[in-house]
Amino acid sequence: MSTVSDTGARLATRPERSAARRLLRWWPVGLFALLFVLPYSAVEVPGLLDGPVGSAGSLQLLALCLLYGALATGYDLLLGRTGLLSFGHALYFATGSYATNTMMQEAGLPFGLSAVLGLAFGTALALLLGSVSLRVTGIGFSMVTLAFAQAAAILVSRDRGGFTGGEEGRAVAAGLLPAGLVGIEHTATLYWITLAFLVLTLAVVHWTTHSPTGRVWEGIKENERRVEVLGLRPYGFKLVAFTVASGLAALGGIVHLLLTGGSTPHTTSSEFTLSLLVMVVLGGSGTRWGPMLGGILYTWADQRLGDLAGSAAVAGLPAVLRVPLSQPLFLLGVLFVVVVGVLPGGLAALPGRVRAARRGRGAADGGDREGESAQAGSGPGTDDPSAAPAVPPSVAPPASADADVKERQSS
Fold first, then answer.
1. Which of 69, 209, 382, 389 could cross-link 214 (Cys pair, CB 3.0–4.6 Å)?
2. Which positions ≥6 away from 146 have C-beta within 8 Å?
3. How far, in Å, CA of 113 to CA of 122, rounded?
């Protein structure tokens, strides 16, 4: 009876579980709706943010987190989806920022037209340099992209013609930007623009990876030679992935220009691309949400750990602890090593590991209950005749043998 009742309870809970799963599929909509209304919130989160969520400083930090989450998602289109390790992705991010800035200040064009031209220039540059870089594969491709990025970094630092501002960067005059995008009172608008960029990046990556071209990218990542055997040219498909990812980076550079009010030479360095690589690995390469989570966590930690390193609590520690803890890069490195060591698949692998652990515990508990019920049913004193031990055929005498013995005795 208990087995029948357990089976009925399981069947009754199946519709409830399926309904819950359908609701869970819509969690991204709820998440982005929550992100959209954050500027209206006055909730304080001690330790995570300095002030209320809707304050200008908190929204600026959240906007940077969303921006780098989008950049890591676009970069994963190369690393996690196509298997291309590029060390020059920062070049196209900086191109979008510097090209837009130059169009406004040198050509006197409005921001909208300058942004379109900056995006077009960054995408065209990616198409040109990608067609050269993809002539080689493996580590050769990585070195060629690094060489292009280093050449661009040198050009920016030397400031030929006064277009880049050298090592100090180049700020945008407030009068060249739309009035609704300048000032602390419009920080929420910049935050929403960054959120829209994140949604656009996720949509483009999702659409391209689930298209026929995206399936070819997956095949190239697994075995490029097999794709060639099927009659397809991997070069053209890799160039599409390179151009799309770099175009998204150029658009991110334009958003970064709005958030920071200028173009900075740090965005041209190879360290910037390495940061994107760490973000992708931290979140989970080749997953839908992992790079975004890695970019958000890395950016938040980069900003907040710097405040922690300069705090009075760290300054009062002994020298053995104060020296390493006062270095934000050391803290970021420790965080990265811990996450990668505990979660080899990144943050995106955490839900799967939790589900696997629950299933393992459930299977172990079920096995223990079955073993206990079996022992209880086969023990002495049971009223179930089917539970009585069976007599082996070789021990019990056959009925025909008893009849023969009786006949002999009577005779």
1. 209
2. 87, 88, 270
3. 14
